[in-house]
Amino acid sequence: MTFRHSITRSIIAALAYASLAVATATAVTPFVVEKEAGSGKDPVSLAALQTTGNLGALFATVLRQDLANSGWFEVAGGRYGAGIEVSGTAAQQGGDSLATRVRVRWNGGSFDWGDTTAGIREARWQAHRLSDEMTRRIKGCAGIAATRIAFVEKESRGGRICICDSDGYALQKFPSEPVSPLSPAFTPDGSTIYYTSFIRGYACIYGVATSGGRRSPLANFTGLNTGGAVSPDGRLVAAILSHPGNPELFVINTATRRAIRQTHTPRGAEASPCWSPDGNRIAYVSDESGTPQVYVMDSESKRSTRVSSRGSQNVAPSWGEGGRIAYCSKQGNYKIVVYDPADGSQTIVSPESGDWEDPSWAPDGRHIVASRSDGRASSLWVIDTMGDPPVRLSLPAGDWRAPDWSKAMR
Amino acid sequence: MNKNAFRIMTALLAVATLAATGCRSKPKNNGNESYLDGDDVAISDWVDGDTGLSLTEAPFDQTHSRAYDVAVDPIYFGYDSFQLPAEEIAKIQQAAEILRGNAGYVLIIEGHCDERGSNEYNLSLGEQRALAVRNYIVSLGIDAQRIQSRSFGEERPAVQGTGEAAWRLNRRGEFAFYK
């Protein structure tokens, strides 16, 4: 298996990191959710965008939503007074084709953008790509619109892996399994999802192409095989295996198909590994202290440091492009906490009510997708760590869990 | 945030962006190579270093038939714990006696959890529960090769529903004998 390493993505990540470092410097207060919705947003006018046909109108609607969801823009009502103007045409032409010719102008510059595509989904993706281009050019940050999210649908018996676009549309379902699969995780290039399946009767790690097709086993050893997480360079997979007589953290070299044990905790179980953006550290859960807590292991020293402190359980870490780690913390109910290694702060970013679990960072290092349960079904929401209210993914009624946000742009 | 603060922030952002793009070194392609230090083993013929046993042995439910002539009730665990409760030990001893008295029999122990908490952590916790039972049976003199563990975490509850009445029945270890 080969994986592409994208220099472009690294640069985008650097930009996102730089902007976050500045933006959060004034905003982070431990254990307080910042509520500054609307503050510091750039007004955008779409008044000079001419649309024709249903697909043209759809393009404008999705673009408006994407710009709002980016967290950086607010779409102004009129044409004047907006610092950023989107002009041009989005025209439906014969059948289901959408042709866009757009100019985006703002104080610092302008760019032209256009494409011609067929179908409703591609019309939506044109809007997603333009929103991300505006985010990248105007704000210097990675966009999140033209990305996908993988997750689990719990069914009355069993469950299945699903994928949708970043706004919840274009739901794609993989075949149902009699025991619900767990922990889907995209490879860095977004081409493959690794997940834990009981299809053999016990927990094994499989990979399946996001385009569909056969699943192939990565780890099916005696005992437990779970938590498959691919390193940013695509060469290694962190996983939890229990063949040593106890669940331990391993790193598997996918090229040589050799596995190396990382933890030695005969009285502790490990779970939920994830990689730092530079691939030099792994965050994971261990209960060797008596309760499950989040630890970080350094690849050089192989030393582990506990990073979670409050809460009787701290689980399911996700390491964002900006360097911060989000995890689920039991403090009464389950909350999403963001840990910043730069200053050691731990900030609750989820709203008060409901149980919030399984956080996964968006590629912008600012937003987090997480599941929210009210005791019955679970739904998926996007949380803004800079304070905008959470946005629910527009999925049909159902029980949706364990989201993973792809870091790859489509 | 007022407008001036925002302008300053934007200016800082521009500087920081330049600094970041100018200074950030290209990620090392082999930055995580150190994870490969240590006693690695080929996955294709994975063998335990201590016992020499294969680590890709076939599960008993693929090599044996289910033995319905023997059975042991499930044992139950405390919340977020893989400790074997004293009042459950008799069931484990019973399972050990079945293996001792029936040379051709083997056992799969299934570890399960209640629905609370992380599905992924519960999968590891369920495995720890199964392994705790396995270790106890081995300590009673039964060959470790006759016992396999597996975990379903919280994915296969014995009873549906929430509340301690359901949860206590779902935090369990189940015995499945094969011959």
In terms of quaternary structure, the protein is heterodimer
**Secondary structure: number of strands of chain A:** 30
CATH architecture classification name of the largest domain in chain A: 6 Propeller
- What do the pLDDT scores of chain B average to? 80
What do these coordinates show?
The complex is a heterodimer of chains A (410) and B (179). In chain A, a hairpin with a 4-residue loop joins strand 24 (333-340) and strand 25. Chain A has helices at 7-25, 53-70, 120-139, and strands at residues 42-45, 49-52, 73-75, 84-93, 97-106, 109-118, 148-154, 159-165, 172-173, 182-186, 192-197, 204-209, 215-219, 225-230, 236-241, 248-253, 258-261, 270-275, 281-286, 293-298, 304-306, 313-319, 325-331, 333-340, 345-348, 355-361, 367-373, 378-384, 391-392, 399-405. Chain A has 2 domains: 37-139, 3-Layer(aba) Sandwich (Rossmann fold), CATH 3.40.50; 148-405, 6 Propeller (Neuraminidase). The longest helix of chain A is centred in the first third of the chain and has 20 residues, at 120-139. With 410 residues, chain A is mainly beta. With 179 residues, chain B is an alpha+beta fold. Chain B has 2 domains: 3-35, no CATH class; 48-178, OmpA-like domain (60s Ribosomal Protein L30, Chain: A, 2-Layer Sandwich), CATH 3.30.1330.60. In chain B, 37% of the residues lie in helices and 14% in strands. Chain B has a 4-stranded mixed beta sheet. The longest helix of chain B has 21 residues, at 3-23. Chain B is globular, with a radius of gyration of 25 Å. The N and C termini of chain B lie far apart (72 Å). At the A-B interface, helix 1, strand 16, strand 17, strand 18 and strand 22 of A face helix 1, strand 1, helix 4 and strand 4 of B. Strand 17 of chain A pairs antiparallel with strand 1 of chain B, so a sheet runs across the interface.
